[in-house]
Design goal:
The protein has a single domain (6-277), classed as Lipocalin (Beta Barrel), CATH 2.40.128.280. The protein is 13% helix and 32% strand. The chain has helices spanning 73-89, 100-117; strands at 6-9, 62-65, 131-138, 161-171, 176-185, 194-207, 211-224, 233-235, 250-258, 262-267, 272-277. Helix 1 (73-89) runs antiparallel to helix 2. The relative contact order is 0.20.
Length: 278
C-alpha cells in the first residue's frame, strides 16, 4: 500500500517537560568548516498527487500534507512513523496537558522516526528549513511557562495568559529566524483580554551538518482584536552587562528530522519539538 498521506492534527493553546538529563538522541551532528549554500528553493516545488488522512484533536485541526512516496519499504516505514508521532502528540495541546507517560510516548515515537530516517544533512540542503513552520508539540511546555524550560511568562499563575498558535519563520537566504507566538493576556473586568502577537527576531547560522545557532535581535509586539489599530512596537533589549545569565541572547538546537512538511528539533536544554509546515 502506498505510504503517501495527508495528515491533519491539532494546535491551538499552551505547552510539557522532559528531563534535561535524559539520554541523548541516537545520533549527533558532524562538523565541517565549509559554508552552507542552499542548493535549491522549495518555493516553486510542485508536489505529486496526494490523498487525505486526518488526525483529530481536542483543540482543532492543522492541515499537514505529505508528498506521495515511491512505495519502497523504507519510505512506507518513515511515513508510518510520522503518523505515529503525530497521533501521539495530537491530543496533548502542544504538551501542556501531557502526563509523564505522554512525554515518554512522544519521546519514543520521535526517536523511532529519527533512527529510521538517519542523520540530517543540511550542509547542501539548508533550503529544507525554508518557510513558516507551525509548532505541534514541545516537551518543555508542561512547565507552564511560555519560555519552556527557560524563564518565561507563567501561564495561569500570576496573570491569566493563554498561548495561541506558535510558529517559526525561517529565511535561509537572509538568515532570519523568527519565533512567533500569539498570546491572549487577561484584563480586569469589564475590559476584554488583550490579544498580542509577539515576534522574537533572531539571526541563525548552521554549525556542522544539523546544528543551528540562533542569536536574538529584538522583540516586536503587535496587538490585534479591539486594539488592532495600534502599530507594531519593539521592546528594547537589555544591555549585555545587565542581562541575566539565564538569558544570554543565543541558543542552539539540532534538527534531527526534516522533510518537506515535518521537522523535529532537540534544544540545548533537552526540549523535543515537533513542527509541520504552515
Amino acid at each position: 500500500m502506498a505510504a503517501s498521506s495527508t495528515f491533519s492534527s491539532l494546535l491551538r493553546s499552551p505547552p510539557a517537560l522532559l528531563s534535561d538529563h535524559r539520554s541523548p538522541p541516537p545520533f549527533r551532528c558532524s562538523f565541517s568548516s565549509s559554508p552552507a549554500v542552499p542548493r535549491s528553493s522549495r518555493l516553486g516545488l510542485t508536489l505529486p498527487e496526494r490523498r487525505n488522512l486526518t488526525v483529530k484533536s481536542t483543540v482543532g485541526e492543522v492541515s499537514y500534507r505529505d508528498p506521495k512516496t515511491s512505495g519502497s519499504g523504507a519510505d512506507e516505514r518513515i511515513e508510518s512513523l510520522k503518523l505515529k508521532l503525530l497521533s501521539t502528540v495530537s491530543g496533548l495541546n502542544r504538551g501542556l496537558v501531557a502526563s509523564l507517560d505522554d512525554l515518554q510516548r512522544a519521546e519514543t515515537a520521535a526517536k523511532e522516526l529519527e533512527t529510521v530516517a538517519g542523520p540530517v544533512e543540511l550542509t547542501d540542503d539548508l533550503d529544507k528549513l525554508q518557510g513558516k513552520w507551525r509548532l505541534l508539540y514541545s516537551s518543555a511546555f508542561s512547565s507552564r511557562s511560555l519560555g519552556g524550560s527557560r524563564p518565561g511568562i507563567p501561564t495561569g499563575r500570576l496573570i491569566p495568559v493563554t498561548l495561541g498558535q506558535v510558529f517559526q519563520r525561517i529565511d535561509v537566504f537572509s538568515k532570519d529566524f523568527d519565533n512567533i507566538a500569539e498570546v491572549e493576556i487577561g484584563a480586569p473586568w469589564p475590559f476584554p483580554p488583550v490579544e498580542v502577537t509577539a515576534t522574537l527576531a533572531h539571526k541563525f547560522e548552521l554549525l556542522g551538518t544539523c546544528k543551528i545557532k540562533i542569536t536574538f535581535q529584538k522583540t516586536t509586539l503587535k496587538t490585534s482584536g479591539n486594539l488592532s489599530q495600534i502599530p507594531p512596537f519593539d521592546i528594547p533589549r537589555l544591555p549585555d552587562s545587565v542581562r541575566p545569565s539565564s538569558n544570554p541572547g543565543t541558543g542552539d538546537f539540532e534538527v534531527t528530522y526534516v522533510d518537506e512538511n515535518m521537522r523535529i528539533t532537540r534544544g540545548d536544554r533537552g526540549e523535543l519539538r515537533v513542527f509541520v509546515i504552515a
